[in-house]
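Hello again, I could really use a second opinion on something today. For a while now I've been wondering how a particular protein folds. Please have a think about how the structure follows from the sequence. Here's the protein in full, and shout if anything looks odd to you:

***
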Amino acid sequence: MMRILFFCSLWLMPVSAHALKIAMVLWRGETAAEQGFRDELKKLGLKPVLTVFDANQDRTALATMLRTKLEPQLASYDYVYSFGTTATLMTKSFLAGRKPLIFNAVFDPVGAGIVSVNKKDNKVVAGVSNMVFLSLQISNARKYLPKGSKMLMPVNPRERNTQLIAEQLKSVAADYQWILETWRINPDKVLLKAELLRLQQDARESVVFIPADSYLISVAPELMQALNDAHIATICSIEAFIPYRCTVGTVGDYREQGMLAARIIAMNQKGIGLQDIPVQYDPAPRLIVKDMPLP
């Protein structure tokens, strides 16, 4: 009870009067998460001054940008915000503890090595996961996909995130009578048409689980069109795929996740150490079913 009262009292304390300078390191351009982040910072009275560094899904470009553009100005920033597992891992390595890092849209922050189970190691890092618990996703999907026992999941070999998801999904899928098979996709848009034809062939008797992966998100219209044309059922793990007629998905809201990241900064400004702020999750993920009205 005393802990609850302590946190409540912190929300009543005034926030910092000076403008907060925040570097935003993005993997694939601005999303609804960044808009939610901006809006919530302003709502909380934090007067943000934001500078965007967009990698455009290019590791080499991101490494160069961190070294040549962020490094010379780093001392002037109060926080660094990062979106996605790849950008967060590279940014954390670059910062080496020099500035507080607030991450967003990281599926498994502990598994990826971004935060530690020992909170003493998290003094300069905190953030938001886009994970919706796989057990909830699969149990919901099974209600609408009662037939079949095969599940196929595309895996991007360049994304540690999808490999972590696959490791966790195997046992969860088995609990609901699905046998999971991973399917390696070549993340080269030049080869996309051929890869999608191969996917249509290999997934004919399966439901396809589409994970939170930056490359798959970037080709979402083509990916979902190919699967829908082949009448292959899909389970989508994040909202980016929903507009393209996913069969079923239980998804968090990007805007809400951005707002949660802003609230972490507000708590930190009011005296709560980042190590004392647990990884945040969207508290109310939505169940979306194709051809049913959106909630």
